[in-house]
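User: For my dataset I need records formatted as: sequence, then structure tokens, nothing else. Please produce one.
Assistant:
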Amino acid sequence: MGTPRAVVVCTARPTFDLDAASERARAARTLLEELGAEVSGPDGLVLTPDDTEAAAEFVDPRADLVVHVCASFSDASAALRLYAGLDRPVLLWSFREPGPVGDRLWLNSLCGANLFGHALVREGGSVRLLHGDPEEAAVRETLRAALGGELPTAPPLPDPVRPPAPEPRVRQALEALRGKRIGVVGDAPSGFTPSEYDADLLRDVFGIEVERIEVEDAFTRTLGVPPEAVEKELAAATRARPSLLGLDPDQAATFAAVTSALRDWSAAQVLAGVAVRCWPEFPTQLGACPCSALSRLADEGVPTACERDVHGTVTMLLLEALGSGTTYLVDTVDLDAERNLVRLWHCGSAATALAADPAAATQSVHCNRKIGVAGDFPLRTGPVVMARITEDPDPSNATRLRLLIASGTSLPEPNRFQGNTAAVRLDADAEGFVHGLVTGGFPHHTVLAWTDVRPGLRAAAGACGIPVVEW
């Protein structure tokens, strides 16, 4: 056998820690060379569309191994440009989070691999996951086997049969969804394939309508909020969230204006939920992050989703119709296989009612953008359910949708990552769940609920002809 050839491409995003990403990317490449591979690919991190075009020259389907290193989170544009149409699995390599407790996510690498997996599987591709740092013995052995032609396995998706809820109650919940309207602000962020949706399909399956405005329209509404209304909202928000007093006054005022504008729009259009393109325009053009504005609406009973995740919002509405109470859209960002634990996180738009201690639901700056306003507190403990309505890549499925369900227990611990974090010990095998998320092509967003509505979810999916994948 000759020298194995490996194509290695390492992506990252400048809003994360590029020094840490570069260090791990170099170590990954070095490890493959130590294992005897002839490595080709860009020497540095792929950060821009031009970098991606240059990297495409290295992708050779005749190589023995194609490794994509998610050195930090990045959107899936590079994955689609580099690997769409590749007739072999791509090994997605994600790293563990190196930062101290309470700091931001330095890399968010696992979430990046999850997003890449969704994008590629949706396009008919195949992926495998390697999660761990270059110095780990298990990582070395996995790569040694992969260079010899033995990739990590893609775990089969579970197909358990579990009891559904009584049908009349579920029919009532589904009927309550018909005629509901979701407010959608802007387009999907570039490369965020889970944030794409088919409005006609949602209408046909759930009876849910979409009311869409552009980001610029949202800004016009925000800038048009009268000063006295901004002052009133800021005063009310500060009474409920006193930590707002410690933030930049201009950013706090913009937060209040965004909250007022979204609330007024929701009321005028009778919106049941809102999905907002929260970046890049809000921080770069308006000068504030909308996370805490979404949190404020969620505390008032309007489900909100960041990154314009419409399917996430639909999942929230279904959960709440089944009696879940307030929910939160999360990324799976960390795996502790020894404790059978995953950490679920997003950057600060959770309702304060979902805080482990609502009285200490601190308001702060956004973890990456470093401007206000975003929550920074751990999430509630206790039994939890994860759910997600998403596209089904199976062409035989008439509804073109499937439903992910998982369950576990949110454990008490300090807020691991700046934003909102839950440390969830899963009822299923955590490592198998994470690998299944990525290789099964599921979105990086799921919805977290603190009431067990799994029987209702199963029955609702059955009534709609939606297959269930339940861990």
